[in-house]
Amino acid sequence: MSGNSFGKIFRITTFGESHGPAVGVVLDGCPAGLELHEDDIQKELDRRRPGQSEITTPRDEADKVEILSGVFEGKTTGTPVCMVVYNKNQQSKDYGDVKNLFRPGHADYTYFMKYGIRDYRGGGRSSSRETIGRVAAGAVAKKLLSLKDIKITGYVKQIGTVKGEKFDEDFIERNPVRCADSEKYQEMKNYILKAKDRGDSVGGIVEVIIRGVEPGLGEPVFDRLNADLAKAILSLPAVKGIEFGRGFDVVYACGSENNDEISPHGFLSNNAGGTLGGISTGQDIVFRFPVKPASSILIPKQTIDKFGNSREVVTKGRHDPCVAPRVVPVAEAMASLVIVDSLMINKNKKISDFS
Amino acid sequence: MSGNSFGKIFRITTFGESHGPAVGVVLDGCPAGLELHEDDIQKELDRRRPGQSEITTPRDEADKVEILSGVFEGKTTGTPVCMVVYNKNQQSKDYGDVKNLFRPGHADYTYFMKYGIRDYRGGGRSSSRETIGRVAAGAVAKKLLSLKDIKITGYVKQIGTVKGEKFDEDFIERNPVRCADSEKYQEMKNYILKAKDRGDSVGGIVEVIIRGVEPGLGEPVFDRLNADLAKAILSLPAVKGIEFGRGFDVVYACGSENNDEISPHGFLSNNAGGTLGGISTGQDIVFRFPVKPASSILIPKQTIDKFGNSREVVTKGRHDPCVAPRVVPVAEAMASLVIVDSLMINKNKKISDFS
Amino acid sequence: MSGNSFGKIFRITTFGESHGPAVGVVLDGCPAGLELHEDDIQKELDRRRPGQSEITTPRDEADKVEILSGVFEGKTTGTPVCMVVYNKNQQSKDYGDVKNLFRPGHADYTYFMKYGIRDYRGGGRSSSRETIGRVAAGAVAKKLLSLKDIKITGYVKQIGTVKGEKFDEDFIERNPVRCADSEKYQEMKNYILKAKDRGDSVGGIVEVIIRGVEPGLGEPVFDRLNADLAKAILSLPAVKGIEFGRGFDVVYACGSENNDEISPHGFLSNNAGGTLGGISTGQDIVFRFPVKPASSILIPKQTIDKFGNSREVVTKGRHDPCVAPRVVPVAEAMASLVIVDSLMINKNKKISDFS
Amino acid sequence: MSGNSFGKIFRITTFGESHGPAVGVVLDGCPAGLELHEDDIQKELDRRRPGQSEITTPRDEADKVEILSGVFEGKTTGTPVCMVVYNKNQQSKDYGDVKNLFRPGHADYTYFMKYGIRDYRGGGRSSSRETIGRVAAGAVAKKLLSLKDIKITGYVKQIGTVKGEKFDEDFIERNPVRCADSEKYQEMKNYILKAKDRGDSVGGIVEVIIRGVEPGLGEPVFDRLNADLAKAILSLPAVKGIEFGRGFDVVYACGSENNDEISPHGFLSNNAGGTLGGISTGQDIVFRFPVKPASSILIPKQTIDKFGNSREVVTKGRHDPCVAPRVVPVAEAMASLVIVDSLMINKNKKISDFS
């Protein structure tokens, strides 16, 4: 109801603020008997943490995870798994009058209007540090999916005007842009660095591919698999949309070209992006989403303070000139959570499953 | 859990199949004391029903609504409002071997894979007749929103290659395309009719604008207003994506141009599309979504039957060559449901509201 | 959220008022492929309907059910099953000033305080006619349970001061009191008829036994099987409590006698009533609950009207002098819903189930 | 879905095992702006912790709470409040073959059957240490209720055969039995100590009174206030039933005596226990529940191990001979959570509240 939980059977609740004592997650609904170690979680957290290259923020956050519950002798017990990352450097620095300012592009204004109070330190709850909990739970989901040979791969498809074309999957985790096109990598990187030099930021487009999903996942009529994925992805900071399969370009298609024909050997195309009527077809599920340029920039901008006075603001500190690369593991985590949940929900659909 | 319900406090559950006895909705959570008559509902249902012009299907479905509960002496009582439309023409026609075929672009295959059984008459549950329940409940939501001067307007922005540019709000309901540009209307219509002549169908893009929303709606971090709207819209048949504000084009922007500055008189731009951190800013909420070309076409296509044999299929009958115009009232209904629910959820956020 | 739904995966939403057009239920989450006919439902509705004997109200309500959705060619399709009973005799009789009176023991006062408006005809939503929807959905649940040889049996254990002792299961449905003790039947019946002659009503105690449940049902820590059953039963009109196994008498026991010992052949006693830590042990689940004397009586009582004036009221019309016998099928329905839901929820608990 | 969450708007999720790193709770839905300090929580935790007197276990657990999120500058921010108690003494002692035994009366057997694995250290998740999270969240709820002058008082009404009669509210927290009858206190205490001397345990009955609740709380038809309270209380370890108002004794009453008459100055009696039709009347809400004798006893009992072999077991260690006194603050916590949630849910019931 208050928006800090996600999922129905495999359900997470995240908590924590950027500069509070900790950020974390409670994962409820994980089956008992899954081997789970802190390393499984840490591996994914390391993919999202800052300080990984010159195009991400140089802030060095170790983000070490601790499992507080739900695991016994190296296995899950079926009870809630609470995972916590204690925040370092939460010493009370002087926030000056930043605490009264609403930074453009940030959630400062809206949190204040909603709650009448806000934790202004580093964005508080609206900080992207909140996604640590998502990634931690997503790591568990990924482990479950690996048991069913389902693989979720995200990568950066476009940075500013530079579009990737080739899809070299192995290249993705070997470059800090997380693009899949080794020929366009340098151009993308330079695009980001140029913005960084100006104290500015740039946007990107991320694509996610889910392979190995069986037909039948997703619930009609509201909880369609694509609708649940849309909600999951749009719940990420900085994401402004989503499209599946042919996406917005479907406007240029006719039904006769867009309908995916079926042969005895399977579908002949995948314009639909892996679902029909909101239910998985068994093909790859493919979606893309735009990531806005990071809101924290070094260029002065006009705003107001909480008393309504006109002010100028610059977001000091060290920031990502482009957040798209770091969104990739978070998007994968969200997609993993959705797929695991769908698999669990799908257990009670046929009378043969019940009896 | 099974996907037929939507909303948290203002919550609907739809039921019914295309050719079963009835389609309908149970709306739970409507405040007591709202004046409500069947006319209020019928008005919106008439906007979505077929047979309205030469560019929609000529099937004539009266779609008369009956209120079965929750209203007493012309007012809601706070108990569930059940609204039903009995299906006409559900006589058992001969479905020949269509009943064993999976029509491309339809949900035939996926429903069969999920449930092992399907009501093949007119698409059964996956028919767009299911949206009748949504529109009926949405009509109640609209009535509630009118009490707060919140207005939701949808229109067709693009048909195939023809983009609308002007925004003449009064024109929308006066043309069957539901476009807002009277100069482009004829061109859009012709685009549709040409496809119709070929037995084919075309796609479109719909835009929705929500005006009058107060700041503070939407819940961090998963139930962001834009995430909930995304889920609502992606739960509609034929919708393949969504974007807010600047949307996918945000990839071409820098932070310094994309951040919406704030003056003492309000925001100076609305690239964000009305939310920051997933919470409404008080500006217009603006989103667009692509509607795929209708799957039912008269052009033969390759498919399989449920025994795995290769087959050819043509969707006989009378169909919409373009569903985008009829999606408009349904999208408005879904947006209305989301906004009403958000308003209700937002009641318990400040200690001053509680005590 | 508004209290008209029950269950998580196997979930029902009831709607309808006593004298509105209809009462009914939408059942979501029923597996596809279950054979289901209106007769299956009608059979259970006939057990709860009035007019069955001299100790129930002589009102004759046929209560014929119609299935509006979710069943195709005699089988469920996995989509919502809407079942409706249209109300007869809803002609607008003169309610005189009853409409402004709060009848003692009824929900008139509380509904008015909550909603500021109420449907005063026959209790409106608070009428026990609402339970028709529960019984209809419960009939589907019972059918599912029969596939797993789970049997739920309710009976009247006590009427006023008359306690049943023998448990003759076959006798239950052969006597209008629904007691299981043929030797005490006449005494119980006379107790009721004596109250009826005075225009008064009497209370009773009902016991329910659930046999054939596997170990492992129920979720720690809040959704214990006994907690969910308690909620289900306390949600029935006129029920004032519940106890499991040894129940309140546990206060007189020591741990050394109350703990149920276990042998290689099973538990040696069942003081717990079939659950430990809220999870089923595989033994019979046994609970009892008190049913208050019906609130509608012919003896004048003091009350107020909605303007705060002191008034005297007599509930005219034909009423049950004792509702316990008619509560039996409704309690069985509620228990059936809980058990089916628990079975479905229990599908995702072990990693071996998932992979 | 997995049973570790409770409440709808004011919603808690508890986590943690008896001998794991920590137990705790995430509270979501607390309004922003409530003054909250760790002392507020600690005060209630101190009421439930062991080692308080000779009739509770001498284990000394400090149970110091830490707030990890959701509070900033001494006030709640509207974001999730995570509260944690780190477990002391979780050093890995030798559990010998206890780890393979199912202790009678405990949840060992059922957890093993459900999950195929269990944390056998001190009961793991089924330990009453889980209730620490409930009490912590309940302390926040109590603080909210105090703003509305709602007061919840629990006390021990009966120990074994010794019934309290007088109700001296001030006495409750001044005696370790938490009874309200100073004349019966010594007798109750002796009853407990005698069982303790035998290595045995005894049961009790607890009563809870909720004062100051406005009329209108609770939702028809399933989420009745009494049904929600029943679920809350039955979700506590060792509780075997509940009754409201006149409770089981209602079987001996006639409608003419049991119906609570109403005068212009209010109700003339409270047999109903504070609700009608599941909605609060504004009178005191009164309920009682039996607490079984603690399962951990020093008297040898027959059981089996997980291989099915017959075994004898004695629960070594220091245990409570009677848990009823320590259940009191936990029951108050659960009742507080239900009432706060009901108040929040009740915000959207009248059209005048909405517009």
Helix-strand layout with pairing:
4 copies of one chain form a homotetramer.
Chain A: E1 5-6, E2 11-16, E3 22-28, H1 38-48, E4 65-67, E5 71-72, E6 75-76, E7 81-86, H2 108-115, H3 131-146, E8 151-159, E9 162-163, H4 185-197, E10 204-211, H5 225-234, E11 241-244, H6 255-258, E12 262-263, E13 266-267, E14 275-276, E15 279-280, E16 285-291, E17 301-304, E18 310-313, H7 324-345, H8 351-354
Antiparallel strand pairs in A: 1-2, 2-3, 3-7, 4-7, 5-6, 8-9, 8-10, 10-16, 11-16, 12-13, 14-15, 17-18
Helix pairs in contact in A: 1-3, 1-7, 3-7, 5-7
Total number of helical segments of chain A?
8
Q: Which oligomeric form is depicted?
A: homotetramer
Question: What are the segments of chain A in which pLDDT stays under 50 over at least 5 consecutive residues?
Answer: none
**Any idea what the CATH superfamily of chain A is called?**
Chorismate synthase AroC
Q: How do the strands line up in the largest sheet of chain A?
A: 1-2-3-7-4
Shape of chain A: globular
The CATH class of chain A is identified as Alpha Beta
**Number of DSSP strands of chain A?**
18
GO biological process, one term (chains A, B, C, D): chorismate biosynthetic process
Organism (chains A, B, C, D): Flexistipes sinusarabici (strain ATCC 49648 / DSM 4947 / MAS 10)
Family (chains A, B, C, D): Belongs to the chorismate synthase family.
Catalytic activity (chains A, B, C, D): 5-O-(1-carboxyvinyl)-3-phosphoshikimate = chorismate + phosphate
How would you summarize what this structure contains?
The structure is a homotetramer of 355-residue chains. Chain A is an alpha+beta fold and 355 residues long.
